């Protein structure tokens, strides 16, 4: 059975070749290609893609927020990020949002196809430079020990706080109540044995 693919990419100069690539593969089936994520919940529910190829910089709703929406709905669709961004902030935000792979635009077509198949097989494909960033982030044993104290949600909230998000912005971004964010941050400080955000950042994030 062919793997069903949906594309979310606003640049037609990338979206069209990507469409053609998917349509050339006998074991892949293109079920939709869209320039924004305004109706992604409805589209994914109706089209039932196995893999969503997602750009990050999209109009109205960016790819990271759209990925969170799909995870919040418990969609079976796996998200493969296809973007030009390689900075740590976008990489970790995408992974924390629930993306299963991260490929930088410019990779050979065969690698994109292979990444789709890896995701279906249970893998987490990444461009080598991205995989290295992830490995380096957890390279320090002491650092890993501190990170392991936090739940994935707590880590996500602390990362957003470090990136300059207010408590209200974090609540909106993670689809929880403001009081829940405040409770998470209180728990983070307790687990890390710190009394402020800068102290928590120092323990968890490399400068």
TrEMBL record:
Domain HTH luxR-type: 143-207
GO MF annotation, one: DNA binding
Lineage top rank: taxon: Bacteria
Residues annotated with 4-aspartylphosphate modification: 55
Response regulatory domain residues: 4-120
Gene source species: Adhaeribacter radiodurans
GO biological process: phosphorelay signal transduction system; regulation of DNA-templated transcription
Matching PROSITE patterns: HTH_LUXR_1 (PS00622), HTH_LUXR_2 (PS50043), RESPONSE_REGULATORY (PS50110)
Pfam families from the UniProt entry: GerE, Response_reg
PANTHER family noted in UniProt: TWO-COMPONENT RESPONSE REGULATOR (PTHR43214)
Sorted UniProt keywords: DNA-binding, Phosphoprotein
Name the UniProt record assigns to this protein: Response regulator transcription factor
